[in-house]
Structures are given as C-alpha cells and as structure tokens.
C-alpha cells in the first residue's frame, strides 16, 4: 500500500509538472529563465515554509546541511535554468517528451551508483523508449521552431540533473520529513536564482506584468513548485527512485494538452507515436517477467 501511495503521489506530481511546462512556455517571452525560476521557487518556498514549520516534523540534521544545500542547488537552481531555457527553443510537447526520458536516465544513474541493478530487461526498455524519443524529436522538423534541437538538448540535461537528484536525495528524505527536506532545498535554490536575477536585472519586466502573467507565476509557485516537488519527495520516501520516475510518462500528456490550449501548438502522429514508445519502453524496463524477481532498490 505504501508503494502504491508513493507512485500515485509521483503521478500527480508529474501531471502538475507537465502543466507547468505549458505555463512556462506561456511566460517565456516575458522574463528570462533565471527570473522564471526565481518566481517559481521563491513563491514555492513561501508557500511551503509556514506549513513545514507548523508540522513540527524533523528537519535535516546539521551534518546533512551541506548535502541538502547542494541538492537544492542542483534541483532548484541548475535544473530550472536548464528547464526554462529549453522552452525558449522548443515546444511544450517536445520539451516534455525529452524530460520523459527521466526514468531511463534514473535507471542508468542508479545502476552506476550501485543503488539498483540494470538488468537485460531494463536495458531493452531503455532502447525502445530512446527510439521513441528519437522518433518524436527527429520527425516533422518543418513543423517545429528553428533550432528546436537546442531546447531538446537542454531539457535532456535538465533530466540528468533530476535523475541524480532522485537517486541522491532518497537517504536524506528518509532521515527527515519530505516536506522539511523539500523546503530547505527549495529555499537554497530560490535564493541562488533571486541573486542571479537581481544581478542581471531580470526583474525589470515585472513592472509590465498583467493579470495573466501574475496568474501564471502564482500557478508555477503554488502548484508547479510547492505541491509538485513536495509530492515528488513524498513519493521518494515511499518507494524506489525508478518507480517514482516512471510517473513522468504522465508529463507529456499534461504538457501537450496545456500547450495546445494556451499556445495552439500542433499535436502530430510522430509525437503521439514517440510518447507511446516511451511508455512501452518504460513499462518493459520497470516490470519483471514471470521468471524474474521483483525489482527493488538496495537499502540506503
């Protein structure tokens, strides 16, 4: 039951994150990537902090502060810069599809770090899903923005950051509450992004914000940051990194829907075929055959 709740929380997190891709594309021409991240995680931290303090649960121990801070910079500073920058060049649907390689990258990272074993079945799933990504990203190039490959590459780099975060953060989440761990890491990342944005003068366009822009930023802060990443950490406290990141297949569906509604982005057969191939590959890679034992992570 605990693992099911964890996977369910991860699926909801991915759905909210997918919608955030479309919302980020909506405001991409208003402010630059660091400023979008500063608003998203600054608001997210402001929403989470009072809840975390009221909960009176265990915060990360002093011995873990450096590691938690480093993970915060990785996931709440570097990741959003890459994530937001990618959406300058590519569409919400393509960006979310590139991000949907996360379970595959997590398997590889977990195997390299000795957390989970990369079996032949997992490898087969990885190859099928990567073929699906290539199909969707390389087909129909005339219908995508010029230089979209740059955005796809940046999103893949963002996915690598998220894969390492998902594997490295699990033991720290277990030693403290997921809400407290997320709040501390998000606070470090948000502070870094606010400083970068202030130095670059990235907040100047705020003077021209209207209701649509402020509504988008509030969505990114409350739902796309506070709730999304709390649910992600909660899921990591309940089950393995690979099982959590399986849920990212929900992401392209949400992102494509929001992109179509808000931005009028086209939905073509190559993209649909790519999403299906990614889902099939991940299903193969994360399930076991009748003669195989259940996949499990080594205790931290």
Automatic annotation (TrEMBL):
Highest rank taxon of the organism: Bacteria
Bilayer-spanning residue ranges: 33-53, 65-89, 95-113, 125-142, 148-167, 179-199, 211-232, 244-263, 269-286
Keywords: Membrane, Transmembrane, Transmembrane helix
Gene3D superfamilies xref list: 1.10.3730.20
Membrane topology per record: Multi-pass membrane protein
Location within or outside the cell: Membrane
InterPro entries attached to this UniProt entry: AA-Vitamin_Transporters, EamA_dom, EmrE-like
Similarity remark: Belongs to the EamA transporter family.
Protein name: DMT family transporter
Source organism (scientific name): Tardiphaga alba
């Amino acid at each position: 039951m605990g693992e099911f709740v964890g996977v369910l929380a991860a699926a909801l997190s991915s759905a909210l994150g997918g919608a955030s891709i479309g919302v980020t594309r909506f405001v991409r021409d208003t402010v630059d990537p660091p400023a979008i991240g500063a608003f998203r995680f600054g608001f997210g931290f402001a929403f989470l902090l009072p809840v975390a303090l009221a909960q009176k649960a265990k915060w990360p121990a002093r011995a873990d502060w450096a590691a938690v801070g480093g993970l915060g910079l990785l996931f709440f500073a570097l990741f959003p810069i890459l994530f937001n920058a990618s959406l300058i060049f590519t569409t919400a649907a393509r960006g979310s599809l590139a991000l949907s390689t996360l379970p595959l990258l997590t398997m590889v990272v977990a195997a390299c770090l000795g957390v989970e074993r990369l079996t032949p079945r997992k490898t087969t799933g990885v190859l099928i899903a990567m073929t699906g990504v290539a199909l969707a990203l390389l087909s129909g190039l005339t219908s995508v923005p010029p230089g979209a490959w740059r955005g796809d590459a940046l999103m893949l780099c963002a996915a690598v950051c998220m894969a390492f975060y998902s594997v490295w953060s699990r033991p720290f989440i277990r030693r403290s509450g997921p809400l407290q761990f997320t709040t501390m890491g998000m606070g470090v990342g948000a502070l870094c992004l606010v400083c970068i944005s202030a130095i670059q003068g990235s907040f100047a366009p705020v003077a021209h914000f209207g209701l649509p822009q402020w509504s988008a930023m509030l969505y990114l802060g409350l739902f796309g940051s506070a709730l999304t990443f709390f649910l992600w950490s909660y899921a990591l406290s309940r089950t393995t990194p690979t099982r959590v990141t399986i849920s990212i297949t929900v992401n392209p569906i949400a992102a494509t829907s929001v992109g179509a509604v808000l931005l009028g982005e086209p939905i073509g057969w190559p993209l649909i075929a790519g999403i299906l191939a990614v889902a099939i590959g991940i299903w193969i890679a994360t399930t076991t055959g009748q003669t195989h034992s259940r996949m499990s992570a080594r205790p931290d």
